[in-house]
């Protein structure tokens, strides 16, 4: 049958069996309402995240950049890079800005390894394949496009070499402690004794400094959160008006949980595909957690997921920690 509304047909076709759609409907039908922050990163979201990293309040990327810019020799030594040939596997490589410092060091030292970036964005993997061999002609690289754990399993099943896995940028913070533990257990499950994991965590510090990083004056973080509503409008023909929602970040210094919510400013019904979802005035949508860690938190994450910590790398302010674990 030919629909009278081909646009609606197109949307319906796109949303059948779509995980993003299912998660949106599930999340917005739950109490409290929630959306998964992993969906922030469409093309516009990627660009807004770049803007966040340049904002004066958002310190985590600068801190970790400093660690990579200044401590590559120590990192390489702790990772035992000069021993047997190994695979350097990066989960969520992005444009590898920080990792390039390590790649430069390893390449200059003529250390034998393969760089295996994994990213959910095909664009990113294509970009790395096009650019890295030009900058680092001596380095072997093979990119993998897909889900972190699936691709890590694939890397493990296709290479017998020792693995050093990078999970940078405090990505682990976008899971609560329970999810982070489960995730690290799964990573451990793909690794063998002697393999390593370097994990970037944002540390607890003055609560005002943390809160400001998620409440920048320019409103970039607000735009980042609202962009997910715009994405839902575009991909599923929904009718969110972003002016009806406000950004509300919180930080609890007792638990280290930094959270972002969107607040609905009026009672309304939002249509998404064939669903009609009620929103009350002042109702919140739980959008994102950015968990902040103590050193002890990282230690218990390591031990509950089957790793042993071997070295810690801090920036000068001790605001960020890259902690290296061995399986
Ligand atoms: C990607 N992730 C580690 C960022 C963070 O700090 O949680 C995402 C972000 N959300 C708001 N600002 C930055």
Describe the structure.
- This protein has 327 residues and is of the alpha/beta class.
- The protein is 41% helix and 24% strand.
- It contains 12 helices and 14 strands.
- The strands form 3 sheets. Strands 2, 3, 4, 5, 6, 7, 13 and 14 form an 8-stranded mixed beta sheet that branches. A 4-stranded mixed beta sheet has the order 1-12-9-8.
- A hairpin with a 2-residue loop joins strand 10 (268-272) and strand 11.
- Helix 3 runs antiparallel to helix 11 (220-236) and helix 5 (72-78) crosses helix 6 (99-108).
- It is globular, with a radius of gyration of 21 Å.
- The protein starts with 5 loop residues before the first helix and ends with a strand.
- 37% of the residues are buried.
- The mean pLDDT is 94.
- Bound molecules: N,N-dimethyl-L-histidine (AVI).
- Residues 52, 60, 169-171, 173-174, 214, 221, 224, 288, 290 line the site of N,N-dimethyl-L-histidine.
């Amino acid at each position: 049958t030919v629909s009278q509304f081909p646009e609606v047909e197109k949307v319906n076709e796109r949303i059948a069996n779509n995980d993003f759609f299912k998660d949106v409907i599930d999340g917005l039908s739950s109490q409290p309402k929630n959306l998964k922050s992993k969906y922030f990163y469409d093309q516009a979201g990627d660009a807004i995240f770049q803007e966040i990293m340049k904002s004066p309040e958002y310190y985590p990327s600068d801190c970790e950049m400093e660690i990579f810019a200044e401590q590559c020799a120590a990192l390489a030594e702790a990772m035992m890079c000069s021993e047997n040939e190994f695979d350097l596997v990066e989960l969520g490589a992005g444009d590898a800005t920080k990792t390039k410092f390590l790649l430069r060091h390893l390449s200059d030292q003529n250390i034998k390894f393969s760089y295996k970036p994994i990213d959910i964005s095909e664009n990113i993997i294509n970009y790395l394949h096009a650019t890295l061999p030009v900058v680092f002609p001596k380095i072997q690289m093979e990119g993998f496009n897909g889900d972190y754990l699936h691709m890590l399993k694939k890397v493990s099943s296709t290479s017998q070499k020792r693995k050093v896995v990078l999970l940078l940028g405090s990505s682990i913070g976008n899971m609560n402690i329970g999810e982070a533990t489960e995730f690290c257990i799964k990573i451990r499950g793909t690794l063998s004794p002697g393999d390593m994991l370097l994990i970037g965590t944002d540390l607890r510090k003055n609560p005002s400094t943390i809160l400001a990083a998620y409440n920048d004056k320019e409103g970039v973080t607000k735009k980042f959160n609202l962009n997910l509503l715009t994405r839902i409008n575009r991909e599923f023909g929904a009718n969110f008006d972003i002016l009806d929602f406000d950004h509300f970040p919180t930080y609890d210094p007792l638990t280290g949980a930094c959270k972002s919510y969107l607040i609905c400013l009026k009672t309304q019904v939002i249509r998404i595909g064939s669903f009609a979802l009620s929103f009350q005035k002042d109702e919140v949508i739980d959008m994102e957690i950015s968990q902040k860690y103590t050193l002890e938190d990282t230690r218990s994450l390591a031990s509950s997921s089957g790793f042993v910590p071997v070295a810690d790398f801090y920036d000068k302010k001790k605001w960020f920690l890259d902690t290296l674990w061995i399986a």
